[in-house]
Design a protein that fits this description.
This protein is 16% helix and 48% strand. The protein is of the alpha+beta class. The chain folds into 2 domains: 82 residues, no CATH class; 104 residues. The strands form 2 sheets. An 8-stranded antiparallel beta barrel has the order 5-6-7-8-9-10-11-12. A 4-stranded antiparallel sheet has the order 1-2-3-4, with helices on one face.
């Protein structure tokens, strides 16, 4: 018995490792489909525009699924899902490529944007909605964009709701459209993307869209000056 118990434990461990690798390769697994669905929701595209591929080992008993999205404008966006090996549950969804290993941020390193974009700080009345686990409103009445001091977007509602997302610029047309990678919020952990459009004079907010993940669930919001 003393000799067979270690052998049984080794066999069980090997079986678990094999089954975990198989799950990472299984395109029909729940984790694979969930990762594809989250990426499609965050980028606002069809799931048929999302390619998912196994990405190796993560941290603390997880594995990585890399995803790539083909957007309507022909651009390609990349990110990853970190999946718990024990139950196949996605424990982290990111809209940037996995950079590997250490650090407390799970490999979340938004690439710096070297292009030109408007360094403005503007806010405008409008209408819109926001929906997430931490709160929801259909009564947004003002949108704020700060690309000058602390890069952020803020959504405010006439019902007292207010949330600010912080991050960094990852893309722009150099004139009035900006993409912001969300890395945190004033209401807790948040990851995702904010798309911003300014008016022609770049002194008002024309449109803000936020998509991604926060507090263990999806988030989505939209503000429009002309709505």
């Amino acid at each position: 018995m003393k000799r067979t118990l270690p052998a049984l434990l080794i066999s069980a461990g090997a079986l678990f490792a094999i089954s975990s690798r198989a799950a990472a390769q299984d395109r029909n697994s729940a984790a694979w489909r969930d990762c594809q669905s989250r990426a499609a929701s965050a980028l606002r595209v069809s799931t048929s525009n999302i390619d998912v591929n196994p990405g190796g080992e993560g941290n603390r008993g997880t594995y990585i699924l890399n995803w790539e999205a083909r957007t309507d404008r022909g651009r390609r966006e990349q990110g990853f899902c970190e999946v718990d090996r024990r139950d196949g549950r996605i424990v982290r969804f990111e809209t940037n490529p996995y950079r590997g290993g250490g650090g407390g941020d799970g490999g979340y390193y938004p690439p710096p944007y070297a292009g030109d974009y408007p360094r403005v700080k503007v806010d405008t009345d409008g209408k819109g909605y926001f929906n997430s686990r931490i709160g929801k409103t259909n009564r947004l009445d003002r949108g704020y964009v700060d690309l000058r001091d602390q890069t952020s977007v803020t959504l405010r509602g006439r019902d007292g709701f207010r949330i600010t997302f912080f991050g960094q610029v990852t893309g722009s047309d150099g004139r009035r459209e900006i993409t912001l990678q969300i890395s945190s919020s004033d209401r807790g952990d948040a990851r995702g993307q904010a798309s911003i459009r300014l008016n022609g004079d770049r002194n008002e907010v024309e449109w803000i869209s936020v998509n991604g993940w926060m507090s263990g669930g999806d988030m989505r919001g939209e503000f429009n000056r002309n709505r």
